[in-house]
Amino acid sequence: MKNILNANEISFSWGDNEVLKDINFGIRSNEILAILGVNGAGKSTLLKCLNGILKLGSGKIEILEKDTSEMNLIEISKLMSYVPQSVRSSFSVDVFDVVLLGRRPHINWRISEEDRQIVSKTIRLFDLEDFAFRKFDKLSGGERQRVVIAKAVAQDPQIFLFDEPTSDLDLKNQIEVMQIMKDITSVSGRKSAIIAIHDINIAARFADRIMLLHNGKIFALGTPSEVLTKSNIAEVFGVTCDVIPSTNDHSMRIIVKDGIKSK
Description:
- The chain has helices at residues 43-50, 73-79, 95-100, 113-125, 141-154, 171-186, 200-206, 224-227, 230-237, and strands spanning 5-14, 17-27, 32-36, 58-63, 66-67, 80-83, 159-163, 192-196, 209-214, 217-222, 239-245, 252-260.
- By secondary structure, the protein is α/β, with parallel strands linked by helices.
- The protein has a single domain (5-260), classed as 3-Layer(aba) Sandwich (Rossmann fold), CATH 3.40.50.300.
- The strands form 3 sheets. Strands 6-7-8-3-9-10 form a 6-stranded mixed sheet, with helices on both faces.
- The longest helix is centred in the last third of the chain and has 16 residues, at 171-186.
């Protein structure tokens, strides 16, 4: 099966600071790829390079075998949606209309009934009916986060790029949102997600593959059991831990011990 997205030898620098160095990976259809690493490892920068917010220093990104540098913003937006790490709350717009903004790449002259139905379905999916006609800027941080994720889903892309999507959510909503994304990417229809996340156990539970970023490079890439080993976690995060396989599925639980790894 061909990859839906390929990153080929991509690098990015802030001035003399090389943040990403020769990054190579691909993502298949119906897959969640979680990106893990310490603060400053380049997780957010990588997502912004993938969707064109940041211009690559070198390398190439392809979606469906087409170079994104040859695509316009509308073309990219039809294929890829992005949820940033922080959500602005300054605009006073109904939640329904915020989610409807996700349909903009698909709207030609006017909003269709199909667009409205997609938005209504997405609002129900994220259990936002009670907020549909409340002002976005009056919501809590966690409520706003769910709305912005719903907007990205209503966009109906083939690739979701999420930067710390569960950071403002309580534990129940973290699990529910990640399960929704798991369901969306598991059904037929060439949808995948690349999610930068700090919670190693959430990543282990929901990701099909995990990328460990370390010092601007891919330190490890593979299934959770292949990547989340004691030695890898100690090297990248500087902590000792126990890795406990799940008895119900192929995931595992990471228990970080007191103190840091020995030098």
